[in-house]
Amino acid sequence: MDIALRRLRSEDLKEVIEIEREAFAPLGVGTPFKRELNNKYSRYLVAYFHDKGSPDIQSTRNNSSEDSNSSISSLITRFRSLVLGKKSADVHLQPNIAGYLGIWFQGSEAHITEIAVRERYRGEGIGELLLIGSVRAAIQY
């Protein structure tokens, strides 16, 4: 299994809300994710698990940046070893979304509003991958 980034979709909402509750539970946060899906001044990215053969994959790789490719490849390799190192029964029980990040665009600025990774995947580079994705999204915007 690999991990990649893509924009938040409506079918991701349940898992993203779970991650938000896990990460920010004492604060009682309630981000209006449904509303943010159609907001042209914001973008939410999710780090999700996928198989190489999946047809709708939006790869996190960018052919114009060798440094980014090596960083992302390194993160994916580290993450793959984490996932494959577990018992096969555990792999099937894993969620589809490992983390998410929110960005708001204001003029020529981009502000990260929140970033969260499931507790069991913290320390594996997923947050770093999300940050790289936020920079790319800001440049594209």
How would you describe this protein?
The protein is built from 5 helices and 4 strands. It is an alpha+beta fold and 141 residues long. It has one domain (2-140): Gcn5-related N-acetyltransferase (GNAT) (Aminopeptidase, 3-Layer(aba) Sandwich). A hairpin with a 2-residue loop joins strand 3 (97-106) and strand 4 (109-117). Helix 3 runs antiparallel to helix 5 (126-140). The longest helix is centred in the middle third of the chain and has 19 residues, at 66-84.
Shape: globular
Radius of gyration using CA atoms only: 15 Å
What portion of the residues fall into strands of 2 or more residues? 15-25%
- Average pLDDT for all residues: 77
- Examine the secondary-structure arrangement and name the CATH architecture: 3-Layer(aba) Sandwich
Annotated CATH topology: Aminopeptidase
SSE layout and pairing:
Layout: E1 2-7, H1 13-24, H2 33-36, E2 42-50, H3 66-84, H4 88-92, E3 97-106, E4 109-117, H5 126-140
Antiparallel strand pairs: 1-2, 2-3, 3-4
How would you briefly describe this protein structure?
With 141 residues, this protein is α+β, with helices and mostly antiparallel strands. 39% of the residues lie in helices and 24% in strands.
Q: Characteristics of this structure?
A:
141 residues; alpha+beta; Aminopeptidase; 4-stranded antiparallel beta sheet
